[in-house]
């Protein structure tokens, strides 16, 4: 029996999904993407989950599309089918999760692997990790949401230049550009990922879900539309038990204990 291409672990309120093709630097195949989509669907229905950590096994995060996946990249028609049937659903699922998503980039994130990492809410990378938008080197355009996320993170000028030039970035360069949240020394990487996941596992989950909704809408709303949305979402946040707990803790000068609703 072949080893699972996706590993799912439950640690209290923390969920970890690990891409598990280390011999191929976790390069993406249609079967892996299908398994990832199934895992994300299960996660969306998991009422006890409060944070997701997405990472890769071995020495890479994800090397992008496995060009040896027969039937996935032969011509334009096939590539379009692969993107629409396998990549796009996963990106939509990641972006629509109510809970916070951490991409723990432990090694190279190339092509669609870089796109996947940048679809997370918080991207943390080991200093030895690299980010490589390699599409131009094989005559393709960035996909898996990269043309959407990159220009929002870098601005349109830098994003397009990075796509055209396809230059590899170190984790430190990516952090300095604002592409990721933080680059940390390799020796501290596992500990820092665990600490961040533990912190978010005790955060006010409903407020984070509403926060994500507001920020995702902000990119295409007018100021007036966004002000109205903020008022609506803030009213929803104020109706939660976690807000009452946060208010009580603030007034009582104690640490809050959020339940996630």
From TrEMBL:
InterPro entries, sorted: ClpP/crotonase-like_dom_sf (IPR029045), Enoyl-CoA_hyd/isom_CS (IPR018376), Enoyl-CoA_hydra/iso (IPR001753), Enoyl-CoA_hydra_C (IPR014748)
Name of a matching Pfam family: ECH_1
CDD domains associated with the record: crotonase-like (cd06558)
Gene3D superfamilies, per database record: 2-enoyl-CoA Hydratase, Chain A, domain 1 (3.90.226.10), Lyase 2-enoyl-coa Hydratase, Chain A, domain 2 (1.10.12.10)
Family indicated by similarity: Belongs to the enoyl-CoA hydratase/isomerase family.
Name of the protein: Enoyl-CoA hydratase-related protein
Organism whose genome encodes this protein: Dongia rigui
């Amino acid at each position: 029996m072949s080893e699972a291409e996706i590993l799912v672990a439950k640690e209290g309120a923390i969920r970890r999904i690990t891409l598990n093709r280390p011999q191929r630097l976790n390069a993406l195949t249609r079967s892996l993407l299908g398994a990832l989509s199934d895992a994300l669907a299960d996660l969306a229905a998991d009422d006890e989950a409060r944070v997701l950590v997405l990472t890769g096994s071995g020495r890479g995060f994800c090397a992008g599309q496995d060009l040896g996946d027969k039937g996935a990249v032969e011509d334009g028609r096939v590539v379009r089918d692969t993107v629409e049937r396998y990549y796009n659903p996963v990106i939509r699922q990641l972006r629509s999760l109510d809970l916070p998503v951490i991409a723990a980039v432990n090694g190279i994130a190339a092509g669609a692997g870089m796109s996947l990492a940048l679809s997370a809410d918080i991207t943390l990378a080991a200093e030895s990790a690299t980010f490589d938008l390699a599409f131009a080197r094989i005559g393709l355009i960035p996909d898996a949401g990269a043309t959407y996320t990159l220009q929002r993170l870098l601005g349109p000028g830098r994003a397009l230049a990075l796509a055209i030039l396809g230059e590899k970035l170190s984790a430190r360069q990516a952090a300095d550009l604002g592409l990721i949240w933080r680059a940390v020394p390799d020796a501290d990487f596992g500990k820092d990922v665990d600490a961040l996941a533990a912190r978010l596992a005790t955060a006010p989950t409903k407020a984070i879900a509403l926060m994500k909704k507001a920020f995702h809408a902000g990119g295409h709303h007018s100021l007036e539309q966004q002000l109205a949305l903020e008022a609506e979402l803030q009213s929803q946040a104020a109706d939660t038990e976690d807000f009452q707990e946060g208010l009580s803790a603030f007034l009582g000068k104690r640490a809050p204990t959020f339940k996630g609703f």
